[in-house]
Design brief:
20 helices, mainly alpha
C-alpha cells in the first residue's frame, strides 16, 4: 500500500488542531466544534479501515513507513502488527467521545481544550506506531505536555499540585529510559526496533537496560509504589482528561512492556519476573483495599485502575499465550469501561458538583437510564461473564495458574475485592432512599450523554460475548513474540551450560 495511512492517522488530528488554533471565530462558534468532531470521527473511520485491510495471518510489521530524519542517526519509522493495531483503534475510538463530552461540559477556553485533545491523539497514536526508539520516546513523553495543561488549566481546586505531581513523576521515570536508548545506540549502532529484534542486545547489558525502561513504564502503568500520582491526577482532572488518562495513557506503558521489555530484553525479563509478580500482587490487593475506603467516586475508580493494571502486568510477565492475550484484552476492556465509569461520575458531578458518595443515593428512581448504563459498566469492571472484563481476567488468571499456583491464588483475591468495592459504590449511589432533597430534581441523561455511554457499552458487551475478532488480530503476533522470547532464552541457557 503506497498511501501513508499511519502518518495520516498521526497527522490528521494535528492538522485539525492547527486549523482550530488559527480560526478567528469566537469559542461559541460551532465551526471549531464541528471541525473537532469531524476530524476525530474521520480518524476513527480511517483506523477501522486500517484494521479491515490488516493481514492477520502474518506476524511481521505492516504498512511500514521509513524516512530519514536526522542523517545517519535517526529515521522516522512507523509500522503496526497485531498487538499495536488494537491500541490505535482504541485511541481513535475514545477521542471523538471525549470531544463530544467536552463540547457539552467545558465552558472555559473550549478552543484550547479541543486543541490539547487533538494534539494528544496524534501523540498517542504515534506511540503505538513507532518502530524507532527515539521516535517512540518523543511521542511517549510528548503526551505529558497536553495532559499537564488539561489538568493544570481545567482541573479542580488542587489542579496545579496534581499537574506538577503527574508531570514530575512520569518525566523523572523516563529520564533513565532516555539514557538507556542512548546506550542502546552505542551498543548496537541503531535504534531501529526491527533491527534490534534481529540482532539482539548483548546479554551483559540487558539487566540495566531493562531496569531503565522499567522505571518509565512502572510509573506510567502505574505500579505500586509509584502509583500515588494517579488518584490525585484523576480527582483534579476534568472528565475528558480522566478518560484519556485511564483509557489510553496507562495503556502506553503496558504496550511498552510487551514491545520493548519482553521484545528487546528477554533474558532480563525472565530474571525480573519474580519482581514483577510481587509488585503486581501488591498493586492488585493493596489498592483494592484502599479503594474500599474511599469516599470520593473518582478516587475509588482511580485506585481500581491501579488494581486492574496490576492484572495486566501480571499477565504480560507470565510469558504465556493466554496471559499476554488476556493482558491486551484487559487493557482494551479497561480502556472502554474505565472511560465509561469516569464519564458516569462526570454526568452526576455536572448536575450536583460533588463526587462524595454520601451525597447520593436513590438515583435509580430519578435517573433510571443512567442507573442501567452505570450498572453495565460496574459489572464490566467486576468482570462479570458476558463483558470484556471477564475475558481478560480469566485469561490472565489462566496464564498465572500455568506459571505459579500461589501467584494466581493471590491475584484471584483481587477479583473478589473488585466486586466488593464496585458493588458497594453502585449500591450507595444508585439504590436506597433519596435522602438528599436536591436529588429529586436531578435530570436523567441527555442525548449526547446517552450516545457516548451506549457507544462504550455496546463494544464492552459485544466483545465480551464474541472476542474472536480480537483474538484473530493478536494471536499470530503474540505467538511469534513468545517463540522468539523462548528461543533467545534457550540460546542464553545453552551458552551458560
Amino acid at each position: 500500500m503506497n498511501f501513508p495511512i499511519l502518518s495520516s492517522l498521526i497527522l490528521l488530528p494535528l492538522i485539525g488542531s492547527v486549523f482550530i488554533f488559527f480560526n478567528k471565530s469566537s469559542e461559541k462558534n460551532r465551526a471549531i466544534k464541528y471541525v473537532s468532531i469531524f476530524i476525530t470521527f474521520s480518524n476513527f473511520l480511517l483506523s477501522l479501515y486500517l484494521w479491515y485491510i490488516f493481514d492477520k495471518s502474518i506476524s511481521d510489521f505492516q504498512f511500514i513507513e521509513d524516512r530519514e530524519w536526522i542523517s545517519g542517526l535517526i529515521n522516522y519509522k512507523v509500522g503496526i502488527d497485531g498487538i499495536s493495531i488494537l491500541f490505535v483503534v482504541l485511541t481513535a475510538f475514545i477521542t471523538p467521545l471525549c470531544v463530544i463530552s467536552v463540547i457539552s461540559t467545558i465552558k472555559y477556553r473550549l478552543k484550547d481544550f479541543l486543541i490539547a485533545i487533538l494534539i494528544m491523539e496524534s501523540l498517542m497514536i504515534g506511540v503505538f506506531c513507532s518502530l524507532d526508539l527515539v521516535v517512540f520516546y518523543l511521542f511517549f513523553e510528548g503526551g505529558l505536555i497536553p495532559m499537564f495543561l488539561i489538568i493544570g488549566i481545567w482541573g479542580g481546586e488542587r489542579r496545579v499540585y496534581s499537574a506538577f505531581k503527574f508531570f514530575l513523576y512520569t518525566l523523572l521515570g523516563s529520564v533513565l529510559m532516555l539514557v538507556a536508548i542512548i546506550s542502546i545506540y552505542w551498543i548496537a549502532g541503531t535504534t531501529d526496533v526491527q533491527e534490534l529484534y534481529k540482532i539482539g542486545i548483548d546479554q551483559k547489558y540487558q539487566n540495566l537496560l531493562w531496569l531503565a525502561f522499567f522505571s518509565s513504564f512502572a510509573v506510567k502503568t502505574p505500579m505500586w509504589p509509584v502509583h500515588t500520582w494517579l488518584p490525585d491526577a484523576h480527582v483534579e482532572a476534568p472528565t475528558a482528561g480522566s478518560v484519556l488518562l485511564a483509557a489510553i495513557l496507562l495503556k502506553m506503558a503496558g504496550y511498552g512492556f510487551i514491545r520493548f521489555s519482553i521484545g528487546l530484553f528477554p533474558v532480563a525479563s525472565e530474571y525480573f519476573v519474580p519482581l514483577v509478580y510481587v509488585l503486581s500482587i501488591i498493586a492488585i490487593i493493596y489498592t483494592s483495599l484502599v479503594a474500599l475506603m474511599q469516599d470520593d467516586m473518582k478516587k475509588l475508580i482511580a485506585y481500581s485502575s491501579v488494581a486492574h493494571m496490576g492484572f495486566v502486568t501480571l499477565g504480560i510477565f507470565t510469558m504465556t499465550q493466554q496471559g499476554i492475550e488476556g493482558s491486551i484484552i484487559q487493557m482494551i476492556s479497561h480502556g472502554l469501561i474505565s472511560a465509561a465509569l469516569f464519564l458516569c461520575v462526570g454526568v452526576i458531578y455536572d448536575r450536583r458538583h460533588t463526587r462524595q458518595i454520601k451525597d447520593y443515593g436513590g438515583l435509580v428512581s430519578v435517573m433510571p437510564k443512567y442507573a442501567i448504563l452505570f450498572m453495565i459498566f460496574t459489572l464490566g469492571a467486576v468482570g462479570l461473564p458476558g463483558t470484556t472484563g471477564f475475558v481478560g481476567e480469566f485469561l490472565i488468571l489462566l496464564g498465572a495458574f500455568k506459571k505459579s499456583f500461589i501467584v494466581a491464588i493471590f491475584a484471584s483475591i483481587g477479583v473478589i475485592l473488585s466486586a466488593a468495592y464496585m458493588l458497594w459504590l453502585y449500591r450507595r449511589v444508585v439504590f436506597g432512599k433519596i435522602v438528599n432533597a436536591d436529588l429529586k430534581n436531578i435530570v436523567d441523561l441527555n442525548k449526547s450523554e446517552k450516545i457516548i455511554l451506549w457507544t462504550l457499552a455496546i463494544p464492552s458487551i459485544f466483545y465480551g460475548f464474541y472476542p474472536e475478532p480480537i483474538f484473530n488480530t493478536i494471536d499470530v503476533s503474540i505467538n511469534s513474540l513468545i517463540q522468539t522470547y523462548n528461543a533467545n532464552l534457550d540460546i542464553y541457557f545453552a551458552g551458560k551450560n
